[in-house]
Structures are given as C-alpha cells and as structure tokens.
Amino acid sequence: MVLDIGGVLEVIDDTVFPGPWPARLGLSADEFADRLDGLPGDPAIGEVTWPEVLDHWRIRLGLTPEDAAGLEEDYWRWYVGTLDQPLFDWFVAQRPHRLTAILSNSSPGARERERCHGFEAVVDELVYSHEVGLAKPDPAVYALTADRLGVRPEEVLFLDDTVERVVGARAVGWHAVHHVSTTRSIAAMERIIAGRA
Question: What are the structural domain ranges in the chain?
C-alpha cells in the first residue's frame, strides 16, 4: 500500500501560503506565482537545492531578509500542513498485514520538515521525488517504489489526490484511488483489499 503526502496524509491550507503574501508585496496572485517560477531546474527532482529556491524567490520578489524568513516559514507551515489523523491511523493499522510506503512529489528539505508527523517510523519505504530524481507521473518512479518494496505492480494499492498521478499509476498496473475525502478513500481501498482477499 502506497500513499501520497500533501493533500492526502497532510491537509493543506492555502490561506497559509501564498495566503497574505501577494497582497503584502503589492502583487496579484498570478504575478506572485509567476515570480516564484523560473528556477534553473526542477526542485521536485532535485535539480536545485532549497537554498537556491529561497535565493531565487528573494531576488524575484525583492524580499528583505526579514520578509524572506517569513515567507520561508509560511511556505513550510503550508507544505507540512496538518495530519489527517483518521487516514493516518487507518494507514498505520495496515502495516501488520501488508507492506506500506509513501511516494511524494517533494521539495528539497521535505524529509526534514515532515519528520514532525513521524512518517519514517510507520512505513517500510519513504520515497521523496527530490531525493530519487524522479517524480509522479513518470512510470519510472512507480517502478522504483514497487522495486523497493519487492512487489509486482499489480500488488500495489495507491492513493493520491492528483488525477494525472492516479492515471499514471494505473498505467503501470497499480490499483489506484483518487483521494477526494478520507471516508470515501478508505472505503474504496477497503473494497479493493476485500476483492483481492
């Protein structure tokens, strides 16, 4: 069983980030987003480091050191979010019965920041895209995750909140559920598990 993090195990609040920052900097939401873009590489596959990301934002947004520190703090508060406790508890309860893993398209620094949730202690594998140089929906990252677990594609049950990543997982043979709500996701996964029992 493989779950995503952001928007699945973590509940993300967009009022935290970008939240007040566009207005604070006198920018529209689109202008703010445009200025965050244009990095020299893709952080999700480890092509740039977190200090490089932050330096790029500081320059593009014209931030003072104090604003840069505040922006960074709000970004990580948004990124880490709050734990979906019912889903997390259900997921942890699966481990005595089956291998479990997390597969996340991640920012550099995510492993360290998300340790507050204790993910590393409750799964057999924790795959961060920025560490392995591959991101969903690249078929190679699904293959890598299954290989690390030592299972065949058809043995994997996957939960993600992004449709294209669910479609990508199904294309490589995984059983994949699109996460809309905790109750619906758990019910859908339990139906799949029961059907394979």
Answer: 2-11+82-196, 21-80
